[in-house]
């Protein structure tokens, strides 16, 4: 696991912590290191994401288990690996941005986004109808992974976990960051205008 990768994970965590999206020790990030066999670098469990360092990452396998290390990966490491495998993502970002949790509460069957310019930043055209899938929360990563895979759409690089947070992925951490920041804006708009455009946003 290269120091450039772990330093990048730490830098991105600090960024999200400063934005209030990784409060306390919540949230986790990962980067794919190799495909066959699948290996990811993922942030470890129980570390304040605003103070995380390049030492606070661990290599995991396709099942989310640490590889040749006593470090404890995030409890959600297995879901990161599942997303990386199914979506062929190069990086996965999981944060607890409030807009994503509130949106999932209002639209538990999926959040519909349409006719918003910021969709371009999410990798879609503004006139397209994009549905962000929502799955029920679970402490069982196999159950969450199955729910993710069942509703997976290759054109939608995001997953909302009800009363928990959001997962967004991309080819690398930078693309995942851009998609996440744009999606958070889109979800915040959706939530804050739901009473104004009840017919269009139901």
Question: Would you kindly provide a written description of the structure presented here, covering whatever features stand out?
Answer:
By secondary structure, this protein is α+β, with helices and mostly antiparallel strands. Helix content is 33%, strand content 20%. It contains five helices and nine strands. It has helices at residues 3-18, 77-87, 98-106, 141-150, 173-192; strands at residues 28-35, 38-43, 57-60, 91-95, 111-113, 130-132, 134-135, 158-161, 165-170. The strands form two sheets. The protein has a seven-stranded mixed sheet with strand order 3-2-1-4-9-8-7, with helices on both faces. β1 (28-35) and β2 form a beta hairpin. α3 packs across α5. The longest helix has 20 residues, at 173-192. The chain is globular, with a radius of gyration of 16 Å. The termini are far apart. The mean pLDDT is 93.
What does the largest sheet look like?
A: 7 strands, mixed
Distance between the termini: 46 Å
Taken from the alpha-carbon principal axes, the silhouette is globular
Strand order of the largest sheet: 3-2-1-4-9-8-7
| Helicity, as a percent range | 25-40%
Give the SSE order as H and E letters: HEEEHEHEEEHEEH
Which class do the helix and strand fractions yield?
A: alpha+beta
- Indicate the low-confidence ranges by residue numbers: none
In percent, how much strand structure appears in the residues?
Answer: 15-25%
Binding site for Zn(2+): 94, 96
Function: Catalyzes the dehydration of methylthioribulose-1-phosphate (MTRu-1-P) into 2,3-diketo-5-methylthiopentyl-1-phosphate (DK-MTP-1-P).
GO molecular function, one term: methylthioribulose 1-phosphate dehydratase activity
Keywords: Amino-acid biosynthesis, Lyase, Metal-binding, Methionine biosynthesis, Zinc
């Amino acid at each position: 696991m290269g120091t450039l990768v772990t330093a990048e994970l730490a830098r991105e965590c600090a960024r999200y912590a400063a934005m209030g999206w990784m409060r306390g020790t919540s949230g986790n990030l990962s980067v794919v290191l190799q495909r066959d066999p699948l290996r990811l670098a993922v942030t470890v469990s129980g570390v304040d994401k605003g103070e995380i360092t390049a030492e606070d990452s661990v290599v995991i396998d396709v099942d989310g288990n640490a590889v040749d290390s006593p470090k404890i990966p995030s409890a959600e490491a297995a879901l990161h690996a599942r997303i990386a495998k199914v979506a062929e993502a190069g990086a996965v970002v999981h944060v607890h941005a409030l807009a994503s949790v509130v949106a999932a509460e209002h639209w538990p069957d999926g959040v519909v986004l349409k006719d918003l310019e910021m969709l371009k930043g999410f990798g879609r055209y503004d006139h397209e109808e994009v549905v962000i899938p929502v799955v029920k929360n679970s402490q069982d990563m196999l159950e969450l992974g199955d729910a993710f895979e069942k509703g997976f759409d290759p054109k939608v690089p995001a997953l909302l976990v009800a009363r928990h947070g959001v997962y967004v992925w991309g080819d690398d951490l930078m693309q995942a960051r851009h998609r996440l920041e744009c999606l958070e804006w889109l979800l915040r708009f959706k939530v804050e205008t739901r009473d104004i455009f009840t017919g269009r946003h139901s």
